[in-house]
Amino acid sequence: MLAVIAPLLLLVPTARTQQIDTTLWARLRYRFVGPEGNRAVAVAGEPGNPLVAYVGAASGGIWKTEDGGVHWRAVFDSQPAQAIGAVAVAPSAHNVLWAGTGETFFIRSTTALGNGVYRSTDGGRSWQHQGLDGTGRIARIVIHPANPDLVLVCALGRAYGPAQDRGVYRTTDGGKTWTRVLFVDANTGCSDLAMDPGDPNTVFAGMWQFEVKTWHLQSGGPGSGLWVSRDGGATWKRIVGHGLPDARHVVGKVAVAVAPSNPNTVYALIEDQDPTLYRSDDRGTTWHVVSHDHTMAERAPYYVRFAVAPDDEERLYFVSVRFSMSRDGGRTLARSGYEGGGDNHDIWIDPLNPDRFMVAHDGGVSITLNRGRTFMRVVLPIAQMYHVHVDTRVPYYVYGNRQDGSSYRMPSRSLADGISEGAWQHVGGCESGFGIPDTVDNATVWSGCYDGGLEVYDVRTGHARNVRVWPEAGYGWRPADVKYRWNWTFPIMISPHDHRRVYVGSQYVHVTSDGGASWKVVSPDLTRNDTSHQQSSGGVTTDNLMTFDGATLFALAESPVQAGVIWAGSNDGLVHVTRDGATTWTDVTGNLPKLAPWGKISNIEPSRFDAGTAYISVDLHELDDLDPYIFKTTDFGRSWKRISEGLPRSSLGFVHVVREDPTRRGMLFAGTESGVYVTLDDGGHWAPLQSNLPHAPISWITVQPHFRDLVVATYGRGIWILDDISPLEDPAFPALTGGAVLFKPRPAYRFRAQQGIASAPNSAVRVDSVPEGADLTYFVPAALADTAAAPDSAHPRRPAKIVVLGASGDTVRALEGERKPGLNRVWWDLRYTRPAVPKLRTPPPGKPFVRTGPDGTRPLVTWDLDLSLRGPLVPPGSYQVRLTVGDSAAAGAALIQSLSVLKDPNTAASDADVLAQTRLALAIRAAQDSVARMINRLEWVRKQLADLTGQLRGDTALAGDSSAKRLAGLADSLDRHASAVEGALFDVHLTGAREDAFRSPMQLYGRLAALQSDVSESGADFAPTTQQQGVYELFAQRLVDASGRFAGFMERELPAFGAELHKAPLKDLISAIDQGTPARPGP
Questions:
Q1: Which member of 76, 508, 685, 752 has the lowest number of beta carbons within 10 Å of its beta carbon?
Q2: Residues 695 and 815 occupy one common structural domain
Q3: Domain span including residue 693
């Protein structure tokens, strides 16, 4: 519901005719809620400076530290590609950085794509896209040691089929123009580059024939091999024989490194049936085998990288499953004490300090300053989440599986001091798949894992039960040879009509009604069952771990409208539906218009409004088709319409998920490889809903139905929440053409603080909780907006005025909000106006060094005062919110919406208890206000007395005047009386240091503050104790006594002094003090 100010809201007859203005919601912000991250795959540092380093995440952007790894910040978030394959710092200009996008460590179909290379000339503060858009994945960048504009780029390519963009590229003008200097064939890209630092004309390139489809990974072929250039990369020659494999011997991925301390020594690590390390001692002319140790490269496509120490050609470091080191040129490997994250990918060694190096791995990055004896591990917020689900608790939790982690359960908000890492809980399962809560009991979680792994986790006990459908391990087996074929992220679905019925998908649909104790197959094979897509994966070396199993189910969903309508989608492009609870199934794939075969049905979304309506997203990017595909049916799949034409077409435009809003018909969300999009007209028009969300791949989206929050899983930056999308769900939005609009607020919970969980300090993973209270959202049209960039006296700030009214129309709180064009949001913390705060204008007795600020005041700082300066919480009930926007009578008319404040569901207090607590808190606040007003008036008097005596004693013309001396003495006496009155109101000895409170007795204002803290800020709802009520009554009597002394001073002593002052013959020489003071100076 909307409340609207003239000019009136104009509704467009047909929403499909209206484009969406994305500036409307530009000010809405996502917040990160966790968990901690995982995969870093590129690392580089500033040579000779241990404080500066850069980390490239697999799909989470670039991170920089400037204090040796203590703190990190994201420096690449504004770029559309967040998968980083390579990062390099120019040796001759350390502010010049190059970044190559697209990951090249490949054992999963989710390995994220890039869109070329980027360059920064200011240490990562800003970036320029420098082309090579179609290269897809960049494995290495090398920069000339003396010329930061001469760069070589090692491009693997998208790897989804033959492409002309693969190979080695060279620029001599800083990326303005590029030349492809090495191209083997359309199936082969570059896996590594190494430049001789002493002779940059000598460059080696590892070339890798590589292709991925949904159903296989093919590493190796005749294109793989080692190449060398002797002219700085302009021309190349393949090295065949002379100790290396000849052209007939098929190999896979190739890594190469030149020993900086002795450039005659060159090493090459080559994927073969057994990984092989070769060595040359004549600059690459002849070679010999050093080792076949599998530790060097256990799963070649995911590893095959190493480095040579800058000061010792015999010292090698290998980054693979384990981190290992050799002191004898690779002949033997020693396990170091390294305990990073496992699955290591990249290493950078400081060329000026070999003791310092960094390793990027699937647990973050590890840094050593003592040549690997010890490491500091850094974990960044770069989690690759496969899905996200929510429960129905208040407040709710979010659930999801993280790559190289497990299933997580995380609070959506904190009731303590921020969301602590310790609040994240593992709930069974493993890195891949789903973690789905049972929203009926909110205590059971179904968590998946690869190889059909499935656990049921009990939140109450912390125990998990393994209930996999068929516990016969399939590791190493061809998919064609196992009973059930399981996708890496096989689907799990709890029936929305009966939470005891849980479905999972292999090539069949399986169902259990007894918690997984037994399972029944309820479908035929719902895939194409092409056995050619069920063979071993890997290429040169076999790698069967279900990451490329063909002919598996990928999506399952039941209609929330009609029980028994179940949809199934496979990773080889089939869509089936049953309308009788899985008795019969219908293949509706052929009705999809112009859809290429073998695509992955990445998501099925049955409508919440019609049983026959469903949406599907189809991912064809592993067929090298990067377009977005979303289809809709309204007749159970008999016909389909493509509704994704309005989504942008780009190398990062393919769709992972489509989700229907549960409240507004026709409102859909789409998650692509690069962002979130929304449509309000069923796909007629799409617009980005990105705001501050990093451009990581969007793997899953859901809407929490009670809080109206959009919850987004990213594959590279964890889980984010866009709080309260109810303004977007309003049927009239976004047809807002001229008038200001106040949207009806969602109900606000009066949450009370709880004890927090300790967390490690200085963590790089900082999680945002939602502000407490009610979010008040309003629309400001351009005609009423305050567009002043920097308000000043000539152009003062013109805020929107928001007033919260109680049931009797009394003002509860007055707020101000921004008046920017589009949607604006203000958070009301559900509190009354805060108590008045004393402003001191004089120093403590005997402490003239305590000075006031530019405004002539200093704060009253004491123990517990900081906890009581918030107003008391309002009680549960109904309130009204009044918005005024604009300066004129017409534009400034008020808008009103109702707001419900709900009691914290976690509290045991009754409504009467809460009301009694609120009444006492308000009484204490009133007493605080009274004391503050008295202090402020006394401080005005004392400040004027100090100014007067300063003049009387400081003016040489008055030094010997007896009247001046007499007045100064009277002023001193009056000041002592004022100080005595003040002394009962607050501790006059306070200097501004909080723990001065322990030096002398706390007085009335401080004690009221402490009592308010006990009553209002203890974090719980309860009726006031007898003691709290008794202490308040004691303070109330003391306030009466103090008010009497104050009145006597103000009504008798001060006027008497004023009379003496006006009788004095010195009135033309001095500044007279007024008998009175402002009735109520500002607190």
A1: 685
A2: no
A3: 601-704
